Amino acid sequence: MAAAARAALPRPHLSLPSSSRRSSPRLSLTPSSAPPRLRGGAATSVAAGTSAAPQQHQVTARLGDVIEAQQFDRDALNEIFEVAREMEAVERGSHGAPSRVLEGYLMATLFYEPSTRTRLSFEAAMRRLGGEVLTTENAREFSSAAKGETLEDTIRTVEGYSDIIVLRHFESGAARRAADTANIPVINAGDGPGQHPTQALLDVYTIKREIGTLDGIKLGLVGDLANGRTVRSLAYLIAKYQNIKIYFVSPDVVKMKDDIKDYLNSKGVEWEESSDLLEVASKCDVIYQTRIQKERFGERIDLYEAARGKYIVDKKVLDVLPKHSVIMHPLPRLDEIRVEVDSDPRAAYFRQAKNGLYIRMALLKLLLVGH
């Protein structure tokens, strides 16, 4: 695009007028008296002397960064899911008439850990909406981080080239540090054993699309619950709904940590731990299987080998799983779901992965240009 044409496009952020952004209050998507951050296109910016956005746009007016699952309330989730449904139609029609919604915008993907689905789905989402991508697949090894550059300095540099940053990092809390540094939106694409909020969004969206409801479901979380950022984020997000029951099924060495249990208790969410996958599967609407993550065990390969292969979704699980239920997995999988399960209509994990495209298209649109 010509420089003059790009300059005429609405910018995705505004300069903060007085104090630095690092000292500005953090936003959640729950009601707050704190002022919205001064960023977003014309549809989302709220600055001094302008009227507030219409009521149906209040959620996106407050959507600054995507850092953790618990920042979303039900109104925000409903709006994101509504836009995701619209994105399904946009994606279907993109082959004949490509969308230009994000034309002129640049997204930088900074991935310090390996990724296939998350990185490619973000990049596909940006391109499906007419935007462009700056990417580094292994920033830990093939960026200035290898020379000792701090994350903060990297973020300050990259924000000068782009309009939004998608970050995956090996350290828990890295996404928050990046967001506190940047003056453009930051999306957490997974920070070590911390959180993976966009995965949780697509997971809840998938449950809604597959089961038809979110209130009242029984959810079995299986596998590496101690290190799995996907199950941690999903637990935070599903707690927004009513009459939820969660079953934790995992080897002893990777049991769900107390912070998640305490959070669920504080929200009145019923949960229990079980060692019997078949019994849990017979009761659940959703079985959410995860991989035992070898990379989180360091040198304790003995612990990894003790945990691996203990809970496997196979024909025995299918035989007891209710007909309306679904099996989900954030992928990649190893041997924790047998290939024979793939042909069962209740196997939703590849549909789940495709839903990640729609959720990420929705987030990019909401963050950059609004509803």
TrEMBL record:
Highest taxon in the source lineage: Eukaryota
Q: Which residues cross the membrane?
A: none
Listed Low complexity bias regions: 1-53
Q: Name one GO molecular function term.
A: amino acid binding
Q: Which Gene3D superfamilies match?
A: Aspartate/ornithine carbamoyltransferase
**Cited SUPFAM superfamilies:** Aspartate/ornithine carbamoyltransferase
| GO cellular component entries | cytoplasm
The residue ranges of the Aspartate/ornithine carbamoyltransferase carbamoyl-P binding domain are: 65-208
Q: Report the pathway entry.
A: Pyrimidine metabolism; UMP biosynthesis via de novo pathway; (S)-dihydroorotate from bicarbonate: step 2/3
Supply the InterPro entries for this chain.
Asp/Orn_carbamoyltranf_P-bd (IPR006132), Asp/Orn_carbamoylTrfase (IPR006130), Asp/Orn_carbamoylTrfase_sf (IPR036901), Asp_carbamoyltransf (IPR002082), Asp_carbamoyltransf_Asp/Orn-bd (IPR006131)
What Pfam family does this protein match (any one)? OTCace
What is the recorded name of this protein? Answer: aspartate carbamoyltransferase
Native species of this protein?
Sorghum bicolor (Sorghum)
